[in-house]
Amino acid sequence: MPYSSFNRSIKIAPSILAADFADFGRECEAIEAQGCDWVHVDVMDGHFVPNITFGPQMCKAIRPHIKGVMDVHLMISPTDSYLEAFAEAGADVLSVHAEAGPHLDRSLQCIRALGAKAGVALNPSTPPESIEYVLDRIDLVCVMTVNPGFGGQSFIESQLAKIARLREMIGERAIHIEIDGGVTPQTAGNCAAMGADVLVAGSAVFKGGSVAKPKAYGANIRAIREAADAAL
Ligand code: DX5
Ligand code: ZN
Fold first, then answer.
1. Do 147 and 124 meet the contact criterion of CB atoms below 8 Å apart?
2. Ligand 1 centre and the CA of 14: distance in Å?
3. CA separation, residue 103 to residues 54, 84, 97, 154, 187 (Å)
4. Minimum-distance ligand to the CA of 124?
5. Alpha-carbon 77 to chain mean position
6. What is the model's pLDDT at position 154?
7. 7: pLDDT confidence band, cut at 50, 70 and 90?
8. Which neighbouring-strand residues pair with 210?
């Protein structure tokens, strides 16, 4: 079911950036059938990040193939003029980058007004304090543990301290901490131990599987979840 209520249990969110681009609908169905929690959709504009993926029409096209939460990560600048289109496409969670424009507070208000959960993504060089004054406007903070733009990069260890600091800043607020980039069974445990609850993984979920061979997706999702749960 789409986003219902807040909890801090570990959620695995495969990034379809690592799926078969000619078959997104069936890929989304396969990862959900294999036990993922959210589906993470990486939108890139070739301007904010050095890669181009897809836009709101693609999100709208895959929405009927996703039963649960569609988690849309916007790596675009400017953002505000596109928020309505992504909300109408069915994003449950809509995240913008703190670095994408000068009016983060306005973008976040706009996302909530459109009826979606509001997220902020932070590049590796962006300090946790950059969201100190918008904590009451957000439902999720996404810690980028690679430089955004591409899948398959190595996890940047320095971000673990940022996760811990954000966990402290958040306190009892209902805000998810999502980790995006280089998440594997080897890195998931530390992320969970520092306070993360949503783990995005592209390569580590899709490797070795396909729509015709989906069991590998299930094994990969379980391996990440078990590593995270074991660290709690
Ligand atoms: C990177 C994207 C990530 C990416 C993760 O810019 O935001 O979601 O797909 O891919 P892996 O898990 O392969 O690092
Ligand atoms: Zn992402």
1. yes
2. 9
3. 24, 16, 11, 31, 33
4. 1
5. 18
6. 98
7. very high
8. none
